[in-house]
Amino acid sequence: MLAAIATTPGCRIAGGTERPGSEEVGQDLGRFAGVDPLGLAVGDDPAVLFAAADVVIDFTRPAATTAHARLAAGSNTALVIGTTGLSSEDEAVLADAARSVPMVYAPNMSLGVTLLMHLVEQAAARLDADYDIEIVEMHHRHKVDAPSGTALGLARAAARGREVSLDDVADRGRDGLTGPRRRGAIGMSALRGGDVVGDHQVIFATDGERLELGHRASSRETFARGAVKSALWVAGRAPGLYDMRDVLNLR
């Protein structure tokens, strides 16, 4: 992320934080950006960072992200969030903070995944419930949440296209004697193994044919580039909760 910021015209690193007690605290940020020393040390107080920055990019954990959202609102600092695994209660905290500051929140910052979600919504709107929707995702063995935030984002896109509530039609994995598939269900399956950065496939299956839309990420740099693009876009915007569709003008 720091390297992407340091090499993008119009961007300047204002600071960075780690959790208190981390061995990175106190080290020069240039080391992590792959550039010469910047004279900026890794800190452990997010409030100092929010006071120094125009936009803060947050890829942390849900508890930290909600705290950062409140800090953003209090300091009038724009925020870009790529954290996954947020609950509906966490997302309500973001929505409340976004009444005061502009905020981009997306489960996946990849430009390709954003376009995939757009295509999935369009396909779901045009293919009725005779087409069963299944979403399969695979990530590295260390990922702690399932299904991935991106898989959930794809499922929400499909539900929007069908004009239904995802809570009413979601089917998260199957085990044992499950019975026949529910008509109109949106299925999600999670695979974990190796060092897979992120693979996502959306399948529309009916009698006689199958449509498959997918995306594979081979480097985490794609998420960093999308986050930096979002930061440039959100700076100076009116308060509100935006996503990557807004950044790419896909509304």
TrEMBL record:
Its EC number is 1.17.1.8. Transmembrane segments: none annotated. Its main location: cytoplasm. One of its GO terms (cellular component) is cytoplasm. Residues 3-109 form the Dihydrodipicolinate reductase N-terminal domain. GO terms for biological process: diaminopimelate biosynthetic process; lysine biosynthetic process via diaminopimelate. It comes from the Bacteria. It is found in: Cytoplasm. The active site is at 139 (proton donor/acceptor), 143 (proton donor). NAD(+) binds at residues 36, 82-84, 106-109. The keyword RNA-binding does not apply. It catalyses: (S)-2,3,4,5-tetrahydrodipicolinate + NADP(+) + H2O = (2S,4S)-4-hydroxy-2,3,4,5-tetrahydrodipicolinate + NADPH + H(+); (S)-2,3,4,5-tetrahydrodipicolinate + NAD(+) + H2O = (2S,4S)-4-hydroxy-2,3,4,5-tetrahydrodipicolinate + NADH + H(+). Residues 1-25 are annotated as: Disordered. Residues 112-248 form the Dihydrodipicolinate reductase C-terminal domain. One of its GO terms (molecular function) is NAD binding. (S)-2,3,4,5-tetrahydrodipicolinate binds at residues 140, 149-150. Catalyzes the conversion of 4-hydroxy-tetrahydrodipicolinate (HTPA) to tetrahydrodipicolinate. Homotetramer. HAMAP family: DapB. Belongs to the DapB family. This is 4-hydroxy-tetrahydrodipicolinate reductase. It comes from Tistrella mobilis (strain KA081020-065).
